[in-house]
DNA sequence: CCACCATACTCAATAATCTGACTAATCAGA
DNA sequence: TCTGATTAGTCAGATTATTGAGTATGGTGG
């Protein structure tokens, strides 16, 4: 049941349409949750019926009419309840890790390729997140912003994303390096 | 469809029963995939029907009879196919991140509590993983083991788990610290 | 001796997520 | 001018994952 809360949390900052929300929850960006458009539209409908968000139609002359949503008091109360409850631990579920687990029984070339790719992807997200941080804190330095900024939630989750992607990148590079060295050693013998 | 491959990868090292597998895929331990017992029993049944694993009953005098499974050649071929295919990126889906995203609209005390808890959990996993590494490489030092060890897949995923949990722990601590400082600053004003 | 935990599983039902296709309009580039 | 990308959604269906309960036996702590 956390998708609904993720949607509520995303709508705290700005009014958003389903489409904009879908962009935010997409692969490249999602720094605190991931979901597909279909899920989001369904969840928005449910949340509106439950009175936790309110939508208003915005007619655009050049683009299709969109529906912007904002969180209601009931929605905020729901988020509050959610926050009080214990968090369920987050678990790993990663194709690439499964492949590495099987590394000794499986073609090394493909593994190295995919590790390199993943490392590059992580680096790209790091660059993006870095820019995002700058945009959020503006002129202020990080220490100052975190102490006195008015809205630090997204900044903190972005920092989380950075920590995660750094770990990801470094592990991928290290692992690729190990596999390459073994390949080279095997080739020499 | 990666659960089946995770099961295959887990069975590469040792013959395991569904119950043992369930232990390994449990929260506390799972360092490359997570799943519940029911899923695993179901997957084992499917894999056996598909000829990718073979089970044999082991009668025990003091415990219920168990069924141990090992990977067949067909299973290995399936893993090989899986490895060749591109990995789907892994995404974040974490209750705690959602709560932090909403940090400015929600009770800070609960957040700090949950961050501290999560940090302690991450540290516990780090200790566990550290011991696991030692047990896997035995007397050898890491560099040597990674270059010449015969089975390094599980070692590499364990290193992945360590990187992940370190990031997790550090971010939780940092975030809790920030929230505490803000709480203190607000109390003074 | 009795409650509880560990081993070793099974079954059913619901909830969450993903795959894939479809509508319909505008805009930018070759 | 035709193609493809972008905006803004909707629908059906399949697959995965979670929740909750139940079976049966043996060992352990109080």
TrEMBL record, chains A, B:
Name the SUPFAM superfamilies on file: Winged helix' DNA-binding domain (SSF46785)
Q: Which residues form the Transcription regulator PadR C-terminal domain?
A: 92-180
Membrane-spanning ranges: none
Q: Where is the Transcription regulator PadR N-terminal domain?
A: 7-80
* Leader sequence segment: none
The protein's name? PadR family transcriptional regulator
Q: What organism does this protein naturally occur in? A: Streptomyces bambusae
